[in-house]
Protein: Aminopeptidase N
Organism: Streptomyces mirabilis
Amino acid sequence: MLLTPRTRKRRIQGALLASAVSVCLVAASAPSPATPLGIGDRLFPHLGNPGYDVKSYDLSFTYPGVNDKPLAAVTTIDAVTSQRLERVNLDYTHGTVESVEVNGAPATFTSAGEDLVVTPGEPVPAGGWMRITVRHSSDPVTTGNGDGGWVRTKDGLAMANQADAAHMVFPCNDHPSDKAMFTIHVTAPDGYTAVANGLPAGVHRAGGSTTWTYRTRHPMATELTQVSIGRSSVAHREGPHGLPLRDVVPTKDRELLEPWLKKTPDQIAWMESKVGPYPFETYGLLMAQAQTGFELETQTLSLFERELFTEPALPKWYVESIMVHELSHQWFGDSVSPRVWSDLWLNEGHATWYEALYAEEKADKPMETRMKTAYRASDSWRAAGGPPAAPKEPAPGRKISIFRPSVYDGAALALYALRQEIGHPTFERLERTWVALHRDGTATTADFERLASDLANRDLSGFFRAWLHGTKTPPMPGHPDWKSDAPKARKGA
Ligand SMILES: [Zn+2]
């Protein structure tokens, strides 16, 4: 994700207005006290659920032709249990559940916090497959100014689930540590086009509506789900090595946006020259007619505000570097996902790094200048948001407040220090090895630290303790003259 400076203020204000999401599950019965569970993520204690590993999601959405009414939805989850389950907790809120089946038999259900708690007729044994089918609504109307989940665009809907909003759209194990394959079906009235993550797997037209099916070829975290429904066109082109690219644009703007869209193949080639092969089956930009205040690296189809490309005040090099930011997330954040949300700096630090490196190489904006500026602010960022790898908890009602400068330029600054410390060749080898080693998986900060030490052939634990976990910015290797301004006394982050 990238909060664009021009809209940062608006987005934060919007988030402040947002109140708790409404829970309106219909409880078929409440057999015994159900409690919301989580997998112990320090920043989001109730995300994810213990006892099972989701292997695949099959999502079906039926769009009614207006974006202020709930979509009818069916979510089917295939999972493997790791323990005997008398109850199965799913993350789900902001919708109505009609029915739940577990392994083909009706199950009872109730809500607890932001969990949908399912009680099958018979406990599900450990170590076996479990299929859960939930018939539910998926409501695009959020309280407040959009807490994520569905994004209402001028002509339909898009999705922005990072970090914790996928379960406002569909029941799931809403944590990036449980990646799964996705099949997504969208039915919409004629005149609309639907596109989702992955490659097309069928189009079926009947009775004034069309059902599109898309399927991922790689596992994906729930927070990276994307579904676009709109009066849009799909522009196809080819990327490096025949990689199929497709962009989703408002039909009326296709020509206007083409000069930007055609930059993608070269940007992918540039990223491949830095870190190795593009990790997925396709890529493209979704140009949404919405003011989200951010761009988002939804897997294989990054979400952008159309305004980013039509606002004449924004320099061309800046817009291109933002495109590269979201593109680089396909390696850093999507293919290699954070194990816990405190590892967010692995996403944003690297995306900021390649954003800045691209600007240095293509637009003569020196990395060193940007990093020296970041160094000045770094102590203040750490005081406000915590160190890069130990971010402060999100403020209540401001969950996107984890996306702070400390994990963007603050974390890119730590990568710069690392490159200063171990040298360019080892740093570049580390980056390539990292995305190859953890492709389609999840990884932790400790994994990164260990790999860096291995490749540098020396113990870097002291370096990382200071740079990633310390409250004060350590001296910059090679730049002993760099200074960080003292944090000003302030409230909040
Ligand atoms: Zn980002």
Residues 12 and 401 are 8 Å apart (CA to CA).
